[in-house]
Amino acid sequence: MEPQIQRTSIDVIASALEPVIPDLGRLSSPDGAVTLMLSDIANAGIAAEELGPERWQKLVGDHHTLVERIVAHHDGQVVRFQDDGFLASFGSAHAALQAAVELQRTFTSPDGAGENDAVALRIGLHSGFVISNPEQLLGRNVVLASRIADRAKGGEILVSSTLMEYTQQDPSFHFELYGEYHFKGVLGEHPVYAVLWR
After folding, report:
1. Angle of the 134-151 helix axis to the 9-16 helix axis, nearest 10
2. Structural domain of residue 142, as residue ranges?
């Protein structure tokens, strides 16, 4: 008997996104690049059980409010919320990464024990170009961003090599190779980098 795989909010967002993609002109930078951020709360099922339904719903509501404010502050937009997860888009890789760092600093406790917090975020980002067939390429970008986010643990920001290349000249960002992966639904081997944000 095969073990039952529990779907995360990131999985649900990635699979349900197709019908709700807004106009790509609002998502991408003038040169056609789009940066996608997918995130959810690590170990959400356990946290929800420990907190109980009422406290969990309040926590998720507060999480949504803070996410919307931080993403908007960095000129991004939340495309979709799904339970404790969300997808956001940015026209700038720098802005997206700054937003990710601010989100982690907002939700992670000062002692650095993020993976033990009720609201320890897992964040994945990927930048890509929208060319010729935007729906198909955006779909690939969503899949890659979601696969990267799924690798993250609570308190981690993981990024694609493309996003790292766009932002590595900025001295405020520091990266470390996290691993190289073959992701389901995406051809090739993909290096993934951890952002050293603490």
Report:
1. 170
2. 9-17+25-195
CB 103 within 8 A of CB 67: yes
Rounded to a whole number of angstroms, the distance between the first and last alpha carbons of the chain is: 42
**Span 115-168, pLDDT tens digits:** 445 679 999 999 987 654 555 546 777 888 888 999 999 999 999 999 999 999
DSSP 4: P
User: What pLDDT, on a 0 to 100 scale, did the predictor assign at position 30?
Assistant: 54
Q: What are phi and psi of 38, to 5 degrees?
A: -115, 140
What is the pLDDT confidence band of residue 176, given thresholds at 50, 70 and 90?
Answer: very high
**Does residue 2 sit within a domain?**
no
Domain CATH code at residue 56: 3.30.70.1230
| Position 34 in a domain | yes
- What are the start-end ranges of the H helices in the chain? 9-16, 24-27, 44-51, 53-73, 93-107, 134-151, 161-167
User: Looking at per-residue confidence, does 193 or 131 come out higher?
Assistant: 193
How many domains does the chain contain in total?
1
Parallel, antiparallel, or unpaired for β 121-129 and 156-160?
parallel
Tell me if 165 is assigned to some domain. Answer: yes
Mean pLDDT of the chain: 81
Is 61 a member of any domain? yes
